[in-house]
Amino acid sequence: MDVAPKVQAESPAPAEPPKPACKPCCRGKRLKKPSELSIYECPADNVEYELVEEQPGAVENGVRYVRTSLSPYYGTVAEAKEFSQNYLVVARNQVTAGVKQTTGETAFRS
Known about the structure:
Layout: H1 58-89, H2 94-103
GO biological process, one term: cristae formation
Region (Disordered): 1-20
């Protein structure tokens, strides 16, 4: 009887999964180091980006139209709301005094 230990053949090391192929938009790009970020540079030296001014779009024109057409009414509505609140809150008002008397409310704000 052979008592020599049985040696199994070593299995080959598992192959590393293949790296996913880069997308076409990512080729040639690399991450910047923190020292390369523009916050550490003089703003005048940053020529990576330039300001492009465009004409207002349809949505912006629509919002502008609505705001300019409704702005005269906004002040009127705000004044009417304030008047109504004051009318209901003033203790000297007869309606308010009548409500206080009929409901028996003593903690009515004046």
